[in-house]
Amino acid sequence: MTGGLTDLTLAGARAGLAAGDFTSEELTLAHLGALEETRPLNAFIAETPERALEMARASDARRAQGQAGMLEGLPIAVKDLFCTQGVQTTAGSRILGGFAPPYESTVTANMWTEGAVMLGKTNMDEFAMGSSNMTSHYGRVENPWRAAGSNRALAPGGSSGGSAAAVAARAAPAATGTDTGGSIRQPAAFCGIVGMKPTYGRCSRWGIVAFASSLDQAGPITRTVWDSAIVLRAMAGHDPKDSTSVPAAVPDYEAALTGDIRGLRIGIPAEYRMEGTPEAIVALWERGKDWLKAAGAEIVDIGLPHTKYALPAYYIVAPAEASSNLARYDGVRFGLRETGDGADLTEMYEATRGAGFGAEVRRRILIGAYVLSAGYYDAYYIKAQRVRSLIAQDFADAFGRVDAILTPTTPTAAFPLGEKMDDPIAMYLNDVFTVPASMAGLPAISVPAGLDDDGLPLGLHLIANAFEEETLFRVAGVLEAAAGFTARPETAAKA
Amino acid sequence: MALDTDTVRRIAHLARVRVPEAELEPLAGELSNILTWVEQLGEVDTENVPPMTSVVAVRLPMREDRVDDGGKAEAILSNAPEGAPGFFAVPKVVE
Fold this sequence. Notes:
The complex is a heterodimer of chains A (495) and B (95). Chain A has helices at residues 10-19, 24-37, 49-64, 106-113, 161-168, 185-191, 225-235, 279-294, 307-325, 345-356, 359-371, 377-398, 424-428, 435-439, 469-483, and strands at residues 44-47, 75-79, 117-122, 174-179, 194-197, 217-222, 265-269, 298-302, 404-408, 444-451, 457-464. With 495 residues, chain A is α/β, with parallel strands linked by helices. Chain A has a domain at 5-263 and 468-483: Amidase signature (AS) domain (Amidase signature (AS) enzymes). Chain B has a domain at 5-43. Chain B starts with a helix and ends in a 7-residue tail after the last strand. Chains A and B meet through helix 9, helix 10, helix 11 and helix 12 of A and helix 1 and helix 2 of B.
C-alpha cells in the first residue's frame, strides 16, 4: 500500500507502521516522491534521498527485531540551521557554502536515536533573520497557498519558511524549526499548520547555528497539535553541552492532550488589540475566545502593559547577540574565503564577510556592533535588557491569574513574495505578536484556526508559563478541534 | 539617532564587513530608521529595573575542570578553506 501515505499525520503514520500496513521504506519513498513533486516551492536546500532510504531500511530492520523508538521510521525534514554530520549545513548563507559539519546537533541526534528518517535540509532566511524567506542565499521559498482567484506567489513566512512550506505541501509530515522571535510560529500561521516554540532551555541549542543565543529555541512544525507533542518529546531533553539546557525530565506531551480544559483560565491581553489589524483576524480571535469558553474555560481580561516595547527591545538584543555570534565567520576555519585585493588578514576578513553575508544579515551585524560599541552600550543594550525584565514581569503577573494567553499569531495573512523588502521595520512588524513570548523565554504555539476573505490561513497563538508545555498542548488541542481546520493549500503532493 | 556615512564606514570596519562606498549612504539611512524606531524605549521608565541576565530561572551549572574531549584535529580542519596539515592557513601577519 502506498496511496495516501503523504496525507497521513505523523500519528497516523506511526500507527500504520506499528500495524505493519506499510514499511518505513515505503513511507519514505512516498515522501521523497512528494519532495520532487513540490520542488517548485524551493522548500529544500538539500534533499538527502540516499541517507533517507538507508535510515528507513535500518528502521524497518530494527522494527523487525521488535525495537521501536518514539519516531521509529517517521520521515522528518530538518531546517538547514541544524548541524547534520556529513550533510551540508548552510544556514541559508553564502558564507557557509559547502560546510559539512563533522558533528550532529543534539536535537537531530535525539530524533535519529528515536528512529526518525531525515528527508533533507529545508530552506530558510539567512541565519534565521527574516520573516519572508526572501533573504536565503539559496532562493526564495513559495508558500503552497494562493489567494482565491490569484496566481501571485506568497511568502511562506520566516525564518523557518522551507520547513513550513514542506509540511503544508505534504512533502514532509513534520519538520524541525527554530524560533528566535517568531520564526516557527509566523510561518506556521502563514502556511496553515502548527508551529510550536518550547520554553527557552527545553531543547538543547548545541549544534544549531547560533543567531541570538538568549532567544533561539528549536521546536516542531507539524500539521496537527498531536504530532507537535510527539515530535517535541523526542527533540527535548537536558544536554550537558548546552549550559542553558534545563535538567528537567521531559513529560509525555501526548498524555496532556486530554481535550479537557474545564476550569482553565485563558487570558486575553488588551494590548494585542492593535490598530490596523484586519477585521478577519480580530473576528477569528473572538471566535477563539468563544470556542475555549464553550469548552469550559474561563476567559479573563488581562494587561501586558509593555507589549509595544517588546519588538524595539528585540531589535536591540537580537542584533547585538547576532553580531557577536557571527564574528566566527572569518574565512579561516570553515565556509567562504575571499582574499580581497591585498595579502592582509584584515583585508581577508572584510572581503569574506562583505561577500558572504546578505543585506539583512549585514544590517543586523552593524546595528548590533553599534549598540554594543563604547558609549552606546548602556543607552541601547542595557536599556533593552531592562525593558525585557519588565516584559517578563508582565507575563509573570499575568500567569498569577491565568493558565494560558490567547492572541492572534500574526497581524496579517501571508503577503506577496517580495513585498516589504525595502522597509525593514514593516518586515519586523510581522513578529509583533510572537516576539513578547520570545523575550520572556515562554512556550507558545500557533494553531491554524481559519481562513481570511481571500481563502488564506490564519493562526491563533497560545502562550503558557515557563515549562508549562503540557498546558499549552492541552489548550491547543481543544482550539484545534473547535476550529476544525481542514483546508488544503493549492500546491500539495497528490498523495 | 541619525548615522552618517563616516560612522557607518567605521562600524563596518569594526565589524570587519566590507561595504562598497556606493552602499554606505543608503545603509546609513536604513540603520538610522531602525535606531530612531528603537529609541521609543526611552518612553519606558526603567529606573530601578535590573537588566535581564537569565531568561529562565536556573543557576549556571558547574563542572569539574578537566579535559573530556579532544584529538579531533583532522575533523576540525576538514572544512578549512585553506590549510596545511595540522594547521589553518591565513595570510602572513608578521613580517
